[in-house]
Predict the 3D structure of the following.
Amino acid sequence: MSKPARTSFVCQQCGKESPRWLGRCPDCQGWSTFVETRVSGPKGGRSLLSKSVTPACELSQVTAEETSRLSCHLSEFDRVLGGGLVPGSLVLISGDPGIGKSTLLLQVAASVAGQGGRVVYASGEESMYQTKLRADRLGIKGEGLYLLNETSLEAILEQMGALSPCLGIIDSIQTVYLGELDGGPGTVSQIRGCTLRLMEWAKGSTVPLLIAGHVTKDGAIAGPKVLEHIVDVVSYLEGETFSSYRLLRGIKNRFGSTNEVGVFEMTGKGLAQVENPSEVFLSRRSQRVPGSVVAPVLEGSRPLLVEVQALTTATSFGLPRRTANGIDMNRLQLVVAVLTKVAGLRLGNQDILVNVVGGLRVSEPAVDLAVALAIASSFSDREMDPGLIAVGEIGLSGEIRPVGQLERRLAEASRQGFARCIGPDDSLEWRSLPAGVRVLGARSLRHALQIALPRKPRADAAGEGREARG
Ligand code: TYD
Ligand code: MG
């Protein structure tokens, strides 16, 4: 006698299971995310993997050859991967719908195929005709690039096995399904099951796989977080809708450093690599206006010069407003509080807007000093010397704290033609400052303000602190 089918309720956001329906998930706090799912006994997740038993092996007996990475010949993409694709790795490219994932993947596919490798591009989202139109637009001829318009993962892997490519692409994980699992494409059980199956296939065949995944509004990868745990590399393609720049940010990388960033620009012919982002972000900089300060920040291991702009206006009604674009709101509150309390600026009746130019988001505190100087510059209506940049974290008592990798930041500043940088005073103890940049050490925020926005004519350099010349 067959047992009646058992059902369970699964959160579509984080994968939590519950025997009863719940209005709110106790794990991820999502509302109305539980969906009734049939539990199919032995057909569960474990059966997705093969049943062969692998014996344990002593570590000293394991031989690991230095495997060569597959270069995609797109330096910005390779950078995020840590120097190319590792054989058998599973790489997730996630991002908002319409941000350019399919475009990037098609370009990567064409670039690898152009080197003589065979690439299979399986798209469940677009028909072959639509992909062809896109390829024409990108100027891709497509020798060695095989398209597959299929959503059944079994069929995709079968075709991939037959073609034995050097790279496989699945666009997107939300559109593929395994017939043996319950639920339609995009459900938690399907996404988890398909990813596990892809992982096993990639490891078995040593073919690297790239998969695209959509992100929900609140930033989580649609469906389960488990997807992030399974794959080897997680990267987000991000950018503002108003800006044509796209950043590919490494979030997790089992084979390289995380937080690497590749910079692209969306053009009429697809994504173009931006190899010198500082130049681009500073290109339309208006010289000699109050409220504009350049800061050398680090995106991953890459130094980048960004322009921080601030505008202060008297509050006309109600509470003063603070607006932060591209920096953390809490950091802005901190900087404003220190400027008010320690440096004595009367900002209590001022609306303050801070913006990082180019749609870039800077999360490191090293940008604090530039934010503070930009606000002070706008508030006092005095512009900073355009050849002067600023870097440093601000502490609650108004001290300027040291920042990491100062030499690399200064080297980039020097490359872009900046001659002077206000920085933490103790950075002067550093021995190998790059040639061409002078560091003006500031002991405190008050001191930094004296250097950057002197009241006396600039020729009188009395306010300048200790100096170190590279
Ligand atoms: P797409 O790669 O389809 O996004 P995703 O796969 O992440 O959903 O990108 C679509 C957007 O990119 C669309 O708004 C149009 C734009 N685009 C260009 O601006 N130039 C191009 O050459 C291409 C192919 C797309
Ligand atoms: Mg797409």
